[in-house]
Amino acid sequence: MDQRLSDDLADLPVLLHEARERAARFLAGVGERPVGPPPAPREPVPLPERGQGTRGALEAFERRWEPGLSASPGPRYLGFVTGGSTPAALAGDWLTSAYDQNAASGGDSSAADLERETVTWLRDLLGLPAEQGLAALGPVRVLSGTPHSSVGKALSVLGLGRSALRRVGALPGREAVDVERLEAALRELDGEPAIVVANAGTVNTADFDDLRAVAALRERYPFWLHVDAAFGAFAALSPEHAHLVDGLGAADSICLDLHKWLNVPYDSAVQFTRRRDLQARVFRNSAAYLGPLGDRPDYLHLTPENSRRLRALPAWFTLAAYGREGHAEIVRRDIALAARLGERLAAMPAYRLLAPVRLNVVCFTLASAPEHIAEVARAVAETGEALLTTTEYAGVPALRAAFSNWRTTEADVDRVAKALERAAG
């Protein structure tokens, strides 16, 4: 483990106390703090290579950023319709990051039921009836080899419809798109514009499209190239795997999830685009009380949200604390741990790998009765030793083990392997 991470883990209670003390000082003085100090423009400093640990990041934050923050939780912040945080809400927010639950699914946590109860309370508070949904609209040409399930959902949210997505096929035995078949699909469009969604790390096997080859097709066909790099973009931090993201910079837009391999709390994601002008045309909000678009538009002009929490702060802290080296160590270690589990499974007669361990995901099934793999998942979960998600790969019921946590060690992999061995009987 990176030394700064190891030191911070050992010192975690003290570091959390120091963060609490800083927060308490801020809140104690918020009533007399300048309510909205005009921020002095600051140019970004280079990403630290080694980082300075959490204590150093706290000190840098207090020196570089804290003086310019507004007193928005205070009693005289009247510019927007913005409430402060009640003591209970603040405690809940801190616990949200500490428990770091993915509330999107109720399969492994009571978080989803907590959210349902909260929504029910809010509905009752306001005297509202149960909500009803709306249907999506209209077609559009969207091509992809092995699209993530969220792509269809996004098309539905946009009103374009899930039927707009066309799978063009993957290479034999792979989840990477067949570039020749993709070109044929583009040719059939006869010059009409399209969106191509490429993968930098698929869900089941962490497979990568040939991004440079896909991007080269734009020389002959008009399309917008979006790359789903939710976790795969971080392969760039491993010298042995950086070639997998070769060509990523040629994309028109890229998305990645920071709550995955950057190890910040849910929910945190970043989108990059070559065409910020188009983004501003879509999301610009014109109102007298809002600032002008300008050369450096506020993010409310670039995203669907007009108001949101400071999601970037956890990412800033972890980058300041551990730098490039610290996060590269996490990536390299998780890749090695995935390979270790793959080797352990390959040596067990009860299991077989369904794909090579390319990066940080291990996809496997039962050697003789794949249809019973879900029972294995339940058996392992019931031991409390590990949680692996079920999936289907090439029509075969399977399990996937995805390594992205900064705490995971070889000893953890060995415990998971033993649990799997016992579950197979």
Please estimate the helix content.
25-40%
CATH homologous superfamily of the domain at 142-301?
A: Type I PLP-dependent aspartate aminotransferase-like (Major domain)
Overall geometry comes to globular
Radius of gyration, CA atoms, in whole angstroms: 24 Å
Can you summarize the main beta sheet? 6 strands, mixed
Q: Mean pLDDT score, rounded?
A: 88
CATH C-level name of the domain at 142-301: Alpha Beta
Strand order of the largest sheet: 2-1-3-4-5-6
Oligomer: single chain
H-E order: HHHHHEHEHEHEEEHHEEHEEH
Low-confidence stretches: 132-138
Strand content: 5-15%
Going by CATH, the architecture of the domain at 142-301 would be 3-Layer(aba) Sandwich
Concise structural overview:
The protein has 425 residues and is α/β, with parallel strands linked by helices. The protein is built from 12 helices and 10 strands.
Describe the structure.
This protein is of the alpha/beta class and 425 residues long. Among the domains are: 142-301, Aspartate Aminotransferase, domain 2 (3-Layer(aba) Sandwich), CATH 3.40.640.10; 326-423, Aspartate Aminotransferase, domain 1 (Alpha-Beta Complex). The protein is built from twelve helices and ten strands. The strands form two sheets. Strands 2-1-3-4-5-6 form a six-stranded mixed sheet, sandwiched between helices. A four-stranded antiparallel sheet has the order 7-8-10-9. α8 links the parallel β3 (194-199) and β4 (223-228). The chain is globular and about 70 Å long.
